[in-house]
Amino acid sequence: MATVGEFLKIKLSKFDVEVADTELELMFLESDTNLDTEITPEVMIETKKALVKFIPELLLVPEVSEGEFKIKFDRDGILAYYRILCKELGVDDGLSGDTPTVTFIGDRW
């Protein structure tokens, strides 16, 4: 059976995301789960909820490219995965882009 750490690394690597173990451990700071915990249905839900909290922060990281040095990942793919997780877990999609609009009605007076 896979561990939480293995699951997270496999999932994130699909989007070319590399995250240090320390940062992954911090995702579970407030729970009994750690990277060595074996995946069970209950742990899977907790792990996916941790990903939903982590992905918005990940999307704030700027893409860097200078010469052969690059920090870049599949933003569209990770955003799509985030939305799938939100729908699956019944969590509000905080990145939906539904922003309030303001309509000027001053000319109606």
TrEMBL record:
Domain of life: Bacteria
InterPro entries per the UniProt record, alphabetical: DUF6706
Protein name according to UniProt: DUF6706 family protein
